[in-house]
Amino acid sequence: MCSGPSLAIAQSVTDPEAFAAVAASSDMFEIESSQLALEEASGEEMRAFAEQMAEDYTAAGEKMKAAAQEHGISPPTSMTEKEHSQLEQLQS
Question: What pLDDT sits at residue 12?
């Protein structure tokens, strides 16, 4: 469920707008993939983990969005094509 490359990219980006874009897309991917895992999971431990991931990334995304907006940055409202493709692969 973790989009490692996006996280690594976000950690290496120094431009605030670029960071907000990468972080927002990564958060959206993590939330959507966690919700998918929640729908598909049969075990209680997996369901609890997926639920926690969705909650954590939702909270992180909200904090990042608020911080970005304080600095006049509008994070994207949809994930990158790459992450969207990865999500589609998980769905199939």
Answer: 66
